[in-house]
Specification:
By secondary structure, this protein is mainly alpha-helical. It is built from 19 helices and 6 strands. Helix 4 crosses helix 8, helix 12 crosses helix 19 and helix 13 crosses helix 18. Bound molecules: s-citryldethia Coenzyme A.
């Protein structure tokens, strides 16, 4: 029997259908609430609001479960790799050999960017935020493929497969160009014989006459880092991509907006903030206990901890933590920040303040350790998150674009400003 919810306002009752998701999540379908009752819902931050139905990712925050298209993140981390998981997230099924080869070829053969974009990048001040540059460059990229970024939805869908492969491939090239530009080094062009993460490290760290050699498994660690970030339900940046896509905007513009949302320190900027926090703790000689006290009395936030959805350990954090430990050991580096991070984690997991609020490490807590070990500068960490999240953003744009019932996102508000008042000439104010 279909479940119903009843809302009673004064002496009038209204019945609404209850939607039940694949994993038994429940939602009250209030799409006719304002028409029926003259009331809207109020849910600052949308913590209790479902903005869409989606088939891409499922998270159970209480149980610490994350699945992409029904596959657990643990299984994907063990058996899959970034480009295969990207295909799965975008198209809904694991690729066959032929599908994977075609997808990989399209990505490999479109890693270069137009030379005029190289000049465009030179226009930014050297110390520009990499996320500001990346967002601008991704929108600019769309101007070189007007047929894919037409804002004519049917046409943009016609070119979707190429646009998706181009963005996955070129976001990595643009990221490396940002780093090379920032450090005053010549751009290193991509190589067709390298897989995704290896090509990225090549473009980042090769010299004109000496190719980068990965001697410590960083390529695999980076590939796993990208895969763990590939999609994560309706997080702030993905919801931004959907918001922009809902207006009919093309994939490049929607993704560029998503990059700006990810930039925030409460979201993707947290991986940078975690390392800054660990460096500060290390610099002051604190063993972490003073910082924990500051976090408990609101003077600081334990960056990399807490999550709007996970009220249990973020399953990605467990995997990233293990990879970070492995890389540091394999490279024989003694990273004091890793020790501080582990002390902080243990202290927080045993402290009532964090336990009561169900604050656990999230994906950003350990990821900086891997990126530091790879030689990625801290101000590029969130760019790395953006590279990983690209397939999720693309998949969410496609889900909106393919849905004929999709409507422009236009939330309501509760107005708390002035009542009607007459204009006052300046000499009477
Ligand atoms: C990502 O949404 C996603 O899926 C995001 C992401 C993805 O893959 O896309 O998973 C990636 O963005 C991970 C989150 C990275 N951000 C951080 O690590 C920044 C630190 N975390 C916090 O800012 C916070 O936990 C948020 C922003 C992540 C979640 O914030 P909420 O859900 O709005 O929770 P809240 O701020 O209302 O906090 C509830 C309580 C408050 O205390 P009280 O008012 O009850 O006394 O918990 C406290 C907060 O002060 N709290 C923290 C804390 N996080 C929450 N206290 C200290 N340190 C923290 N990190």
């Amino acid at each position: 029997m279909d479940k119903k919810a009843t809302i009673t306002i004064e002496d009038q009752s209204y019945e609404y259908p209850v939607m039940v998701g694949t994993e038994n999540e429940h939602a009250i379908d209030l799409r006719s609430l304002r028409k029926d009752t003259g009331h809207i819902t109020f849910d600052e931050g949308y913590g209790n609001t479902g903005s869409c139905e989606s088939e891409i990712t499922f998270i159970d925050g209480e149980k610490g479960i994350l699945r992409n298209r029904g596959y657990s993140i643990e299984e994907l981390a063990e058996h899959s790799f970034f480009i295969e998981t990207a295909y799965l997230i975008i198209y809904g099924e694991l690729p066959t050999n032929d599908e994977l080869s075609a997808f990989r070829l399209n990505i490999a053969h479109n890693a270069n960017v137009h030379t005029r974009l190289e000049n465009f990048m030179l226009g930014f001040p050297r110390r520009s935020s990499p996320m500001a540059v990346l967002s601008s460059m991704l929108n600019a990229l769309g101007t070189y493929y007007p047929q894919m970024a037409s804002n004519n939805r049917q046409q943009d869908l016609e070119y979707f497969d190429d646009a998706a492969a181009f963005l996955i491939s070129k976001v990595r090239t643009l990221a490396a160009m940002i780093y090379r530009n920032q450090t005053g080094q010549p751009y290193i062009y991509p190589r067709n014989d390298l897989h995704y993460a290896g090509n990225f490290l090549h473009m980042m760290f090769s010299e004109p006459y000496h190719d980068y050699e990965d001697r410590s498994g960083l390529t695999n660690a980076l590939d796993l880092f990208f895969m763990l970030h590939a999609d994560h339900e309706q997080n702030c940046s993905t919801s931004t991509v959907r918001m922009v896509a809902s207006s009919g905007a093309n994939l490049f513009a929607s993704i560029s907006a998503g990059v700006c949302a990810l930039w925030g320190p409460l979201h993707g900027g947290a991986n940078t903030a975690v390392v800054r926090m660990l460096e500060e703790i290390y610099r002051t000689g604190d063993d972490g206990s003073k910082f924990i006290e500051n976090a408990k009395n609101g003077k600081a936030k334990l960056m990399g901890f807490g999550h709007r959805v996970y009220k249990n350990y973020d399953p990605r954090a467990k995997i990233v933590g293990r990879v970070a430990e492995g890389i540091v050991q394999k490279m024989g580096i003694k990273d004091p920040l890793l020790d501080i991070a582990k002390n902080l984690e243990q202290a927080a997991l045993n402290d009532d303040y964090f336990v009561e609020r169900k604050l656990y490490p999230n994906v950003d807590f350990y990821s900086g350790i891997i990126l530091k070990a790879a030689g990625i500068p801290v101000d590029m960490f969130t760019v790395m998150f953006a590279i990983g999240r690209m397939p999720g953003w693309i998949a969410n744009w496609r889900e909106i674009a393919l849905n004929p019932a999709s409507r422009i996102h236009r939330p309501r508000q509760i107005y708390t400003g002035s009542h009607l008042r007459p204009y006052v000439p300046i000499d009477q104010r």
